[in-house]
Design goal:
12% of the residues are buried. The protein has helices at 3-27, 33-39, and strands spanning 52-58, 63-64, 71-72, 77-81, 86-88, 93-95. Helices cover 33% and strands 23% of the residues. The chain is of the alpha+beta class. The strands form 2 sheets. A 4-stranded mixed sheet has the order 5-4-1-6, with no helix packed on it. The longest helix has 25 residues, at 3-27.
């Protein structure tokens, strides 16, 4: 077996173990870390010129809205401003034409 194949198998087994632990925690009534982080809000950016204008895209990462400070998650629709290099919820800004 090649070294790359062995490494892939090792990575997949580690991922399976992580998923098993996460499933157990959820079955016992626990929460995901991202759910706990959602409850924490950061204050809005006071220096932001209203409204936030960006292109509507699907997020490639989880992050925080520049306007309201709430989280958004992977593959969620967000507005992305190339100039600011930041994202916001569609409800927090306007889509550029």
């Amino acid at each position: 077996m090649s070294a790359a194949r062995e490494e892939t198998i090792r990575d997949l087994k580690a991922l399976r173990a992580h998923l098993d632990r996460t499933i157990e925690r959820l079955e016992k009534g626990g929460t995901l870390a991202r759910d706990a982080a959602s409850a924490e809000r950061t204050p809005p950016d006071a220096g932001l010129a209203e409204p936030f204008v960006g292109r509507l895209i699907r997020s490639k990462y989880s992050g925080r809205c520049l306007v309201c400070g709430e989280n958004y998650h992977l593959d969620e629709q967000v507005l992305y401003s190339r100039e600011l290099r930041r994202s916001a919820h569609p409800r927090c800004g306007k889509a550029s034409p």
